[in-house]
Amino acid sequence: MSHILHEPWDAGMSVQFRIDEVHARRRTPYQELLVAQTETYGRCLFIDDLVQSTEADEALYHEPFVHPAMVIHGAPRRVLVGGAGEGATLRELLRHPTVEHVLAVDLDPEVIEVCREHLPAWSDGAFDDPRVTLRIEDVQATLAEPPAQPWDVILMDVTDPVEDGPAVDVFTVEFFERAAAALADDGIFVLQSGELDPHDLHLARTVYSTLREAFAWVHMIPIHVPSFHCIWSVTLCAKRSPKAIPDDLEARVARLPTERLRAYSSAMHRALLTQPPWLERGLAEPGRVLRGDGLVTYRRGAGP
User: Fold this and answer.
1) Contact 87, 126 (CB under 8 A)
2) What domains can be seen in the chain, in order of their start residue?
3) Tens-digit pLDDT profile for residues 132-188
């Protein structure tokens, strides 16, 4: 028997998902997990009643999250992932032939357990790949210790920094400075940076301005994931400005199994690394800098 899940969105507004079957529901020490079958998006992962990933369009998030940074770097060998989650980020990373070692960190082992059992196509065997090491801990603890070798790419695929959430302390200057210190000089830092509202960019400005305190180059990318019901963002950062559209872009992208990609190509790379005017102009206005003294949220009307 189906029922309706109401995803809270804004004052006086919610998004409704018809749940046809519940595959798993679990309350962990950190969050509430739900894997369910929906009519519109197929099998979905919800955390705290917010959609995180769906069968229909997860590639439209994970491919632009991973590939632009990896291609810009050109030859990444060592990668750190904060938020291993359903394993789709690992799946995309392992498509790059230069990758030798991925350290995947997640605070909540039950997320990984549920996803491996009920969403196996998301990881596509990535958790069993010998190049991947899985560590259950807070990524802040991971970055508190200097790595044996600097990371070529660090990807933070963490949940939104809402009150009482596990990622609340990640979106701060202090954390971003630790991440920058762990990067190689030519390394790239990637952050899932939340909703982009063209009519109200104060939240995006907050994240962007905070990142600019730690990195010399910051580029926010708008992406479209239908199940998110808004424009979303991924932000790339570096300690020195890279060539965002490499001269040999086509050759770099050709190293990937392009026949298996749904959302990334050399043409899409150029598009993603070219900001629309509304975003470029909107981010020119400074935002609040977070230093561990407040929260940023991706729901309008509740931000700083």
Assistant:
1) yes
2) 3-54 (2.30.140.10), 58-283 (3.40.50.150)
3) 999 999 999 999 988 999 999 999 998 665 455 455 577 899 999 999 999 999 999
